[in-house]
């Protein structure tokens, strides 16, 4: 069955306290290669049958209206994986 993956991230201009905590933990562990971490959400929507343009449009609508908070988050990806 095909799956539609929706990725949601905090808006770039907002502080990401979880990402900041992970960045600090990496530094304490001696990992210095990464200057910042941002943490988001991934949703996997399993589709019964074929992914048509209408199904993909519905997934985008759901991503914008239900899966993300448009005040503080951006939907950064909606893609089909087999």
Automatic annotation (TrEMBL):
Alphabetic keyword roster: ATP-binding, Cytoplasm, Ligase, Nucleotide-binding, Purine biosynthesis
EC number from the UniProt entry: 6.3.5.3
Chain segments annotated as coiled-coil in the UniProt record: none
Main location: cytoplasm
Gene3D superfamilies attached to this UniProt entry: Phosphoribosylformylglycinamidine synthase subunit PurS
The reaction(s) this protein catalyses: N(2)-formyl-N(1)-(5-phospho-beta-D-ribosyl)glycinamide + L-glutamine + ATP + H2O = 2-formamido-N(1)-(5-O-phospho-beta-D-ribosyl)acetamidine + L-glutamate + ADP + phosphate + H(+)
The protein's assembly and partners: Part of the FGAM synthase complex composed of 1 PurL, 1 PurQ and 2 PurS subunits.
Name used for this protein in its record: Phosphoribosylformylglycinamidine synthase subunit PurS
Organism lineage: Bacteria, Bacillati, Actinomycetota, Actinomycetes, Micrococcales
């Amino acid at each position: 069955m095909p799956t539609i993956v929706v990725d949601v991230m905090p808006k770039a201009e907002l502080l990401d306290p979880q990402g900041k905590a992970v960045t600090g933990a990496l530094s304490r562990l001696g990992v210095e290669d990464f200057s910042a971490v941002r943490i988001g959400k991934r949703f996997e929507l399993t589709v019964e049958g074929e992914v048509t343009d209408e199904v993909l449009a519905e997934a985008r609508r759901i991503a914008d209206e239900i899966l993300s908070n448009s005040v503080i988050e951006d939907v950064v990806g909606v893609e089909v994986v087999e």
